[in-house]
Every structure is written in structure tokens, then in C-alpha cells.
Specification:
The complex is a heterodimer of chains A (248) and B (245). Chain A is 83% helix and 0% strand. Chain A contains ten helices and no strands. Chain A has helices spanning 2-19, 29-42, 44-76, 78-93, 96-107, 113-136, 140-148, 153-191, 196-205, 209-238. Chain A is globular and about 75 Å long. Chain B has 245 residues and is of the alpha/beta class. Chain B has seven helices and nine strands, in the order E-E-E-H-E-E-H-H-H-E-H-E-H-E-E-H. Chain B has helices spanning 51-58, 92-100, 106-119, 135-147, 165-182, 193-199, 231-244, and strands spanning 7-20, 23-36, 40-44, 66-71, 77-80, 153-157, 185-190, 202-206, 213-218. In chain B, strands 5-6-7-3-8-9 form a six-stranded mixed β-sheet, with helices on both faces. In chain B, strands 2-1-4 form a three-stranded antiparallel β-sheet, covered by helices on one side. Chain B starts with 6 loop residues before the first strand and ends with a helix. The relative contact order of chain B is 0.19. The chains are: A mainly alpha (248), B alpha/beta (245).
């Protein structure tokens, strides 16, 4: 309720401010919606959203897969842990803009590969770090209990390891996704000829500020649906058992 | 009550030490213990003397440096931990079923489970998660889980240590009642001589580190007649107390 009020206040401010500025500087909410309608009618909206979504999902799935597998591998072997830890840290230190430049040089402008590569390189360390620390949180005393009661290794994995990791996995997915989304837009802005990021860059160079706002609004709406509609519901589902109300 | 004289568990000359930065810490030295079907054996000793190490060796979590461990083939072993070890993501029923599945057919498992839950006042909470249970309820659940596999031997690591006196007697009563029905053997670790003389057929007293067996005391008085007011029981109580102080 308070959150909705906050958003409404921002919208109100925006509407008031836009009255005092030229649409080129700050288009009004109405002009922005109109621009969005135009994009919808021309088919540009749907087409670009699908392209961006496809790239994000592709790059992000890859990052999830590699991040989780690498965390498991490194946890199991101290050799690979020593081997990979500094590499991952270096990847994280390098600013994303450098990765985009390199990706454009390596993969070119037209290909999907540039945004997919950026999403992957930005998000897989996030996934990795979260899952790796999640593995530390497994309560070994529960594993001992299960071994005493003759649970098979398979049952220990599905009954103890997996449920311990799921909350970390969900929070890693949620954290990484906003990075993934921003990375796609960024990569498309600089190094692509399609997708929402490219549409933003074109609106910018054509001085169509109302389109810039329309795309931004769309991005925000998209992220909100993901964050509150899907991920939060998922998080509640997998951590439903942890509600801490003691009964006397 | 079924009381055979089949040996469930035998430890022969067990030695165990742990390596730390100061060298070897000798924990167990030359421990030999035998437990037969349906027996209650209490192990009393100063705190930190390696009692839990001994249980970990019996339950297979640790391997002794020297000595032999014999367990009856296919021995059905239950363990009641000092702090309940419950799976937070499983309900009361789920926690019990998780271990029962390894030993009992589903139908029988459910029967035993519901009887024990009803007996401990937990039946109304069978679909609740551990986070929503009080400390006493978790301890009861810990005991129910152990007894619900129809064990042959129950290992207990100071299960009554941190409980208030009401709950302690309630759990002891439940344990003895189930013991009479199911005829399992109990290997109870405790620091409390009173607990030992009231519950056990035999009390094994350990010395301080490195831990060896100091004395074994046999109690032949029927359990129903035991109380510290009974002269013989009280003299055994004093004897144990003198040995561990």
C-alpha cells in the first residue's frame, strides 16, 4: 500500500515537472503512453521485447548452469577451488563496459552473441558466489543424522543438500536476473542492431525522448512483474517452512 | 518384555585419539563394552571425557584407531541427539517418515508414527514445521522419530540435559513405556548419576581423559521400585557420585 503511494507520488512529480519543460527534455506521462501506443501499433514493441527476452534467457540460463556446476565442482575439490577462484575474481573486477567492447570486437554487431556473452560474463560470478556460500550453509549435523538412520547417498542429496540449496538458488536467480536484464540492454545499446537497447539508442540519436521514456517504463514494468509476480512467489513457496512463529 | 541374551553391540579394546596442534589428544583408551538385547546401559562420566566420541564410533561416524566394533547384523539403530536434529523443511510427519521409510513398510510406519505422536501430544501438530514448535516439542519429536523406526538399540546422548524437570520426567516415562512394549536396548550417555540409577540395568563409569572404564555397577532392583528413597539405590547413587567427582 505504502509502496503504491510512493510510486504515485513519483508519477505526480513527473507530471508536474513535465509541464514546465519541453517534451524533448521531459515528456509528460501522457506523451510517454502515446509513444508506447505508437510502438505497439508499429509492431516494434513486441518484436524488440521478444529479441531482448530471448537473449536474456539464453545468456542467463547459460550463466546459471555454469555458475551452479562450477560451485559444486569447486566445493568438491580444493585443487579446482585454488585454480578457479582468482579467475572468477578477475572476471568480476573487469568493468562490464570493457567486456562489451571486447565482445563487439570478437563477435561483431549483428550477432546475438555480443549481448549473450555480456549477460553470461556479468551474471555467472553472481550465481557462482551465491551457490558457493549456500553450499557452506548445509548443516552437516543433519547429514550425520541421515547417515545414522541409513539414508542412501541419493536420499541425502535430494532430502538434505537440495532443500538447503534451493533458497540460495532462488535468491541467486533473483539477484542475477536484474543484472542480466541490465546487461542485455547495455550490450544492445552499444553493440547490436536489434532489441530494446538498440531501440533506446535509436530513440536517443533521433531525439525522440518520449520513446526513450516509453521503453524505460516498459523495462520497469517488466522487471516488476518478474520480481514481485514470479520470483517473490517462488521464494515464498520454497522457504515457507521457515516462518518463525514459536508456539508455546 | 522380550529379553534375550543375544549381543547387539560389542566394543573390544577401543582406542581413539585426535590430532591437534599440540600433538595427539588421547580420548578413549581400552574401552570394552557389551550390550545385549533389551538391556538398558548407562554410561556416566565427567563432561568432555569422550562419551560422544564413543557414540560416534558405535554409529559409524568415526573409526577407532584400534580395537574391534561388533554390531549385530542389520542392527536397527536409533539415535536421540542432545539438540534435536530435525529437517526444517519437513513437517513433523515428514521428519519421522524420512527415516521410517528406510526401515518399515508405509502402512506400518504410519501406524507406529500416529500412535507415538498421539502419545506425546504432537498429533495435532503433525503437519507443522519444526520452526513453529517449541523447544520441548522438538525434543519430543526427536524422541518419537527414534522410537518410530522400531529400533533394536537406541543410543542417547544426554537427551534430558537441557530440559525442564516436568518435560524430563514426561520423556523418561514415555521412553520406559515404549521400552516395555518394544523391548529395544538403550545405551544412555549421561552426566547425571540419578538418571543412571533410576533407569539402567548396568552403569558404566568412565574416568577422565584419556577415558577408560573405571567401574561397572549392576542394578537388580525392578525399575518400578526404584527411587532415591530406596536404600540400595541411594547407596549406588552415592557410589557413582564419589567415582565421578
Amino acid at each position: 500500500m505504502r509502496g503504491t503511494t510512493g510510486v504515485l507520488v513519483v508519477l505526480l512529480f513527473w507530471a508536474l515537472l513535465s509541464r514546465r519543460h519541453h517534451p524533448l527534455i521531459l515528456p509528460s506521462p501522457g506523451e510517454t503512453l502515446q509513444a508506447m501506443g505508437g510502438l505497439w501499433q508499429s509492431g516494434a514493441l513486441w518484436a524488440n521485447v521478444m529479441i531482448t527476452l530471448r537473449r536474456t534467457l539464453l545468456g542467463y540460463s547459460l550463466a546459471l548452469l555454469v555458475g551452479v556446476l562450477l560451485a559444486l565442482l569447486l566445493k568438491a575439490s580444493s585443487f579446482w577451488q585454488d585454480f578457479f577462484r582468482p579467475i572468477i575474481t578477475i572476471i568480476q573486477i573487469i568493468p562490464p563496459v570493457l567486456w562489451v567492447i571486447l565482445a563487439v570486437i570478437w563477435f561483431g554487431i549483428a550477432a546475438d552473441l555480443t549481448p549473450v556473452f555480456l549477460i553470461f560474463i556479468v551474471t555467472f560470478p553472481i550465481i557462482f558466489v551465491n551457490i558457493f556460500s549456500g553450499l557452506d550453509s548445509i548443516d552437516y549435523r543433519l547429514v550425520e543424522m541421515a547417515r545414522i538412520y541409513r539414508c542412501s547417498p541419493g536420499k541425502i542429496i535430494t532430502g538434505i543438500y537440495f532443500p538447503s540449496l534451493v533458497p540460495h538458488l532462488v535468491s541467486a536467480i533473483s539477484l542475477g536476473l536484474s543484472f542480466a536484464w541490465k546487461s542485455t540492454i547495455f550490450a544492445e545499446y552499444i553493440g547490436s542492431n536489434s532489441g530494446i537497447g538498440f531501440a533506446l539508442s535509436r530513440a536517443n540519436s533521433n531525439l525522440e525522448t518520449e520513446k526513450l521514456f516509453a521503453w524505460t517504463l516498459l523495462l520497469v514494468a517488466f522487471m516488476l512483474v518478474f520480481e514481485y509476480g514470479i520470483l517473490e512467489a517462488l521464494e515464498k513457496r520454497v522457504t515457507g517452512w521457515s516462518i518463525n512463529e514459536e508456539r508455546k | 518384555m522380550k529379553r534375550g541374551n543375544r549381543v547387539l553391540l560389542e566394543l573390544k579394546n577401543i582406542y581413539k585419539s585426535f590430532r591437534n596442534n599440540k600433538g595427539d589428544l588421547r580420548v578413549l583408551e581400552d574401552i570394552s563394552i557389551k550390550i545385549q538385547e533389551g538391556e538398558i546401559v548407562a554410561l556416566v562420566g565427567p563432561s568432555g571425557c569422550g562419551k560422544t566420541t564413543l557414540l560416534n564410533i558405535i554409529s559409524g561416524l568415526l573409526v577407532p584407531d584400534k580395537g574391534d566394533l561388533f554390531l549385530k547384523e542389520g542392527l536397527r539403530l536409533a539415535y536421540i541427539f542432545q539438540e534435536p536434529r530435525l529437517l526444517p523443511w519437513k513437517s513433523v510427519t515428514g521428519n519421522i517418515a524420512f527415516v521410517q521409510e528406510n526401515f518399515l513398510p508405509e502402512e506400518e510406519g504410519r501406524e507406529v508414527r500416529e500412535r507415538l505422536l498421539a502419545r506425546t501430544g504432537l498429533l495435532d501438530y503433525k503437519d507443522v514445521y519444526p520452526a513453529q514448535l517449541s523447544g520441548g516439542m522438538k525434543q519430543r519429536l526427536e524422541m518419537v522419530r527414534a522410537l518410530a523406526i522400531k529400533p533394536e538399540l537406541v543410543l542417547m546422548d544426554e537427551p534430558f540435559k537441557s530440559l525442564d524437570i516436568g518435560l524430563k520426567y514426561q520423556l523418561q516415562e514415555l521412553l520406559l513405556e515404549e521400552y516395555r512394549q518394544q523391548a529395544f536396548a538403550i545405551f544412555l550417555i549421561t552426566h547425571d548419576p540419578e538418571e543412571a540409577v533410576l533407569l539402567a540395568d548396568r552403569v558404566i563409569i568412565l574416568s577422565d581423559k584419556p577415558t577408560g572404564i573405571r567401574k561397572e555397577i549392576r542394578l537388580d532392583i525392578p525399575r518400578q521400585e526404584r527411587s532415591l528413597k530406596n536404600e540400595e539405590i541411594y547407596s549406588k547413587f552415592e557410589e557413582i557420585l564419589a567415582l565421578i567427582l
